[in-house]
Every structure is written in structure tokens, then in C-alpha cells.
Design brief:
The chain is of the alpha/beta class. It has a single domain (7-236), classed as Glycerol-3-phosphate (1)-acyltransferase. The chain has 8 helices and 9 strands. The chain has helices at 14-31, 41-50, 66-77, 89-94, 113-127, 153-160, 198-221, 240-248; strands at 7-8, 34-37, 55-59, 82-88, 103-106, 131-136, 165-172, 182-190, 229-233. The protein starts with 6 loop residues before the first strand and ends in a 17-residue tail after the last helix. 40% of the residues are buried.
């Protein structure tokens, strides 16, 4: 609605955010067999965590879980950084506690929404020592392997910030070895462009995000996550007998057709 302000600011509460992150870990452990990080991704996330200045972390958006995975990553790798993230203002009015997590509301149909988001985040960047924008940059649910089209909001913010750093994170939720699906994650650094314009940042982000999701898709298609670091896992898996059988066979995280009891008639 045009008569409403284009943005609802957050009211961040660090204590509440820590409790919420604990709850997210419990949810992930309950609903997924494991949360795994591709080799090389840790160094990218840790570099963002160490960065003395503003940063942006862009997430793919194929699932309802993506923002919660972002909460998990922020808590795991960047607990000392101040985080913020946009959300549809309608959702923020419905679930007001999101404001305590650093989420600010955007009226997507308001003509001033893009400028309001940019100005708001740059204001936070100027006021905080080590701020981070977390954003599902596609702006809507999209097939993780479909056409990649990032909205320019994150690029605009980085173009307007001094000494900005950015990373792109691809996330998928495949069924691999266990009864429940897994969360598999890859992160790729976005090289700061020589000309820090919105257009140049947007191109660099698109290239990095495409590289992250292609690498992840290739591993999932090969059904091989042997090089992945397990960040979180359930205490058990399918059942103790299956675990013992797999261990005796020297099993690992690579999924082969023979593990499923035959190749068909």
C-alpha cells in the first residue's frame, strides 16, 4: 500500500537472537540427517567473519529453510558481527519477533522500497563496526538449478559502502544416504570489482553465485559429499543395523546405487 512507509526498522535483541539460533540448531538437527559444508567454504565464511568493515552474504532461495540456514551460519561463523536482513513487511507485521533478530520489513510494491533498503542498510553500516547484510538475493523462491537472476539490492548496498566484502552461499536439501534429507552448503567469495558500481558488483555477485551453485549441484548429482565438513548431524541415522553394516563395508558419505539393495530387474 502506497500510504505506508516503505520500510519497518528492526529492533535487534542480541539475547533473543542467541536463543533463536539455539532453536534453529535444534530444528535442523531434528529435521535433517546432517548439515554439511563443501570444502573451501569455511575459509570464505571465516574471511567474512574477520573482515574489519561491512559485508554482504547472499543466499540462494529454493526453500523456506534458507533464512534459517543463514541464521545457523551467522551464529556458527560470525557471532561477533551485527546482522541485518530484509523481509516482506507483511510477514514482519504478522511475526513481529523477527525484528529482534535484525530483520527489517520492506514493502515490495512501494516505489521507494529499493532506495529505502539501500539507505537503511548503509545507515547501519555506518553506525556499526562490523555489520553484515544477509539476503536471499533472488527475492523469491526459485529452483536452485534454474535460471539465475539476482536482484540488485545487495550490489547497490556494496557499491555505496566503503571497504565492502561479499560472499555468495548456495544451499540445497538433497536426499543422499539417510532417511531424512541433508543440508549441503557451499560459499564462494565475491571479488571486489575494480570499479565499485552497482552494475559491476551485480555482475561479480552473479558469477560467484553461479559458481557456488554449480559446484554444489555437481557434487549432489555425483552423490558424493566425501570432502564435505559435517557441521551438524543427528545422533543416529537410519538404524543401528544399517550403520554397522555400512561401517563394516568401509562405508562413507558417498552414495552408491548398490547401497540401496540392487540395480533393478
Amino acid at each position: 500500500m502506497m500510504d505506508q512507509a516503505p520500510l519497518i526498522p528492526a529492533t535487534t535483541d542480541r539475547r533473543f537472537a542467541r536463543v533463536f539460533a539455539w532453536w534453529v540448531r535444534r530444528m535442523l538437527r531434528s529435521d535433517f540427517a546432517a548439515v554439511r559444508l563443501r570444502a573451501g567454504a569455511r575459509s570464505v565464511l571465516e574471511a567474512v567473519a574477520r573482515h574489519e568493515g561491512p559485508a554482504a552474504v547472499l543466499l540462494t532461495h529454493g526453500s523456506w529453510w534458507d533464512p534459517l540456514v543463514g541464521v545457523f551460519l551467522a551464529d556458527r561463523f560470525m557471532p561477533a558481527r551485527d546482522g541485518c536482513a530484509p523481509i516482506d513487511a507483511t510477514m514482519l507485521r504478522k511475526f513481529g519477533f523477527f525484528r529482534k533478530l535484525g530483520l527489517f520489513g520492506i514493502e515490495p510494491d512501494h516505489p521507494g522500497a529499493a532506495r529505502a533498503m539501500r539507505d537503511h542498510v548503509l545507515g547501519l553500516f555506518a553506525a556499526q563496526a562490523r555489520p553484515t547484510l544477509w539476503i536471499t538475493a533472488q527475492g523469491r523462491f526459485v529452483d536452485p538449478r534454474g535460471e539465475l537472476e539476482l536482484r540488485p539490492g545487495a550490489a547497490s548496498v556494496c557499491a555505496g559502502a566503503r571497504n565492502a566484502k561479499a560472499a555468495c552461499v548456495a544451499i540445497e536439501y538433497p536426499f543422499l544416504l539417510e532417511r531424512k534429507p541433508e543440508v549441503v552448503i557451499h560459499a564462494v567469495e565475491v571479488p571486489a570489482p575494480a570499479r565499485p558500481s552497482t552494475a559491476h558488483w551485480h555482475r561479480a555477485m552473479t558469477v560467484a553465485m553461479d559458481a557456488a551453485r554449480r559446484a554444489l549441484a555437481a557434487d549432489i548429482t555425483a552423490r558424493d559429499v566425501t570432502t564435505y565438513e559435517t557441521l551438524l548431524s543427528r545422533a543416529g541415522s537410519v538404524n543401528p543395523v544399517y550403520d554397522l553394516w555400512r561401517a563394516l563395508r568401509g562405508g562413507n558419505a558417498k552414495v552408491e546405487d548398490s547401497h540401496r539393495g540392487g540395480r533393478g530387474a
